[in-house]
Design a protein that fits this description.
Layout (H helix, E strand, L loop, with lengths): L5 E2 L21 E2 L27 E4 L2 E4 L4 E2 L1 E7 L7 H13 L4 E5 L16 H17 L2 E5 L17 H5 L19 H16 L1 E2 L4 E2 L6 E7 L7 H9 L1 H19 L2 H8 L1 H10 L17 H13 L6 H27 L5 E5 L7 H13 L2 E7 L10 E2 L26 E8 L8 H13 L4 E4 L28 H9 L8 E7 L1 H4 L8 E6 L2 E6 L10 E6 L15 E2 L4 E3 L5 E4 L5 E5 L3 E6 L5 E4 L2 E5 L4 E7 L11 E5 L4 E4 L2 E2 L5 E4 L2 E6 L3 E16 L5 E16 H4 L3 E5 L1
Parallel strand pairs: 6-7, 6-16, 7-8, 8-11, 11-12, 13-15, 15-16, 17-20
Antiparallel strand pairs: 1-28, 2-33, 3-4, 4-5, 9-10, 14-32, 18-19, 21-22, 22-23, 23-24, 24-25, 25-28, 26-27, 27-34, 29-36, 30-33, 31-32, 34-35, 34-36
Helix pairs in contact: 1-2, 4-10, 5-6, 10-11, 12-13
Amino acid sequence: MKYPVLFVAFTILFSCSKKETSFTEPEWFEFQPDENFYGSVIDMSDWLDKPAGSHGFVKMEGDDFVFEDGTPVKFWGVNICSARPFTDDATIDQWVQQLTHYGVNGVRFHKFTQHGLSETRSDRITQEKWNHFDYFQASLREAGIYYGWSPIYGHKLRPGDKERLLAYDEIARADMGGHLSYSTIGLVNFAEDIQDLHIDLLVHMLEHKNPETGLRYADDPALNFIELQNEDNIWFSTADKMMELCPTYKELHREKFCSWLENKYGSQEALETAWGEAAFEWGRSVRDEDWNLEKCNITPVASHGIYGYEYSKYAERDTVVPLFLRDHARFLYEEQLAFYDRFAKAIRETGYKGAIVGSCWQAGAGITHYYNLEADRSVGFIDRHNYFGGGTGHRLVPGSMNNASMLSSPGSGFLSTGRQQISDRPFALSEWMSLPPNEWIAEGPAVVGIYGLGLNDWDASYQFASDYPHFTQTIHTPGVYNVNAPTQLPLYPAIAAMIYRDEIEEGEVVHTRHVHIPSLQDGMIGFDESVRQDWDQKEITGTPPNEVFAIGKVELAFADEFRETLEGDYHRYWDTINKVIESNTGQLTWDYSEKGFFTLETPFSSGVVGFTGGKELRAGQVAIVSETPFSVIFITSADRELDLDHCESMIVTAVARARNTNMKFNEEMTELLDPGIQPILMEPVQFRLTLDRKIKEVRILDHVGKPTGEVINCNSKSFMADGSVHKTIYYELVF
């Protein structure tokens, strides 16, 4: 950065006077970002290690990512999706400049291969697409940004694939509706011919030499991970649907399962004895199949929704899932392991030494959930997705909406995803977003960055998604998954500084759940857990209560023997009467006695996030009063070496709510009536800060952090700010 600075996330106007001053009635102001970042004092480009890969490949070391030279790393990134990785060079230059300015050090290129494939075969990228893709990767590398590949989602076949597949024509007619139609999803987890296509595509990509860097991608340490398959696993319901559309592959799956059952039981008679008549009645009534081993007509149950339903039903009876379903699940687990093993082996044979992730999708509740986690663990780190808030569908349209806040319920929403964090693997949240028209979406980056990557020691975040190299003109794109909104990306520099300085201390482990894989075959888990899923939005609850995510680290360990997981004692940190939770690091306090807020204090940062209700809150050396109903307020030194007591200047970043012009809600704020139009309007944050140091002056910055020339003389330890007057989201405090 040009100056050592301190970041604070707020929308504010400053009055440096010892006298109390009344705030004006807040007037929302237009968001007007300048896409030229030259001279910005919040610029994070110098914080990124250049070039990416200079420390060697990213490796797994226990539950952390480290480079080959031993340097630890966390990734604070975004997704760039679909055809966008193949965009023109001028757009790429603009994109890289924006990402570096806001402190992004990782990009997840997602579901892009189908937009770059040859017209004749699906295992090759065209040279035209390579030209742009190579330039994008090289430009990110030079800027210090790592890139990972999530290449395959809804892999679409080409006519040249026909001779390689058992039933090309069936897949080509498999209309599931939507973007997954006519794709290999669901089938790839057990069908080796389809697996070969996916593997050949990835191997071809890794063998490709980028002329911009002179490196094969297999030799490029800036390629920090490879994902085998997006949002799919062998227990996902798409497998059931695809098998009905593709009878040849259904028959293949049946043959493999019946062979497995014959090896275990030997005969139909022995199978009937083991499973019992109730199992075969279930097969007739639920699956419409008269299961018979000799006729080879037993189709594996692939939908985790069925397993979850049966798990819940039998848990209420304090008994285990029937043996026949446990056999189905175990067979699928072994098939998933076999696919991951051969895929990972092919990747490693290219020489690639970086990280691998199996898939990023969970498998419901009960035994399939833990089989799936262990399958992912077997091949690499654990990666998951979650979303929160908003309405239904992918576009901002009138209708009912979830206008709740994660702050009112500690450990809810994104943090509950951390129940899938494993004790000996890194953990990533590679897709997440607080969705409009929910009004409190500025809480998302704060929750993920501070409690996720900080206290709970997650290792990577890739918000979904950056669709443009500039801010959007409305809060939506028209979709709701929008990083380029003023409640999201402008918060990145403050949070990135916290992450790169490693200033949010990792919490001590407060709870470990133990899973013994062989005991899953007996239906034994050892603790309670349930999953509520509404499409992309998930909430996991159970033992321990979700509130412990506000205390310290929560993990799951795969054990060498079965053991019951006991409830812990958390009352040292959790005041259940007053509804206040302290982190076991002493840096964070979460108050959910009303709508909810948390405070942050480290040697380099202070802040408050949420519904503070006009209370004066002490966060380290700063006392903060926010009169705005909801606001995000950070104070963190932008100097990598100088803390709050010694930095030469600080930056105040001001963010509360954002709306489109003429955006309308019903009186209860439960329904969007009109999405509105451009431009975006920002709610000003009205607050007072009191520091332990005397402030010389306050410099007003524009919406990308450049000085406007307007200065407030201060010479006091306290000042008031009213964003409705200065109409900005950033300020610099000079000492």
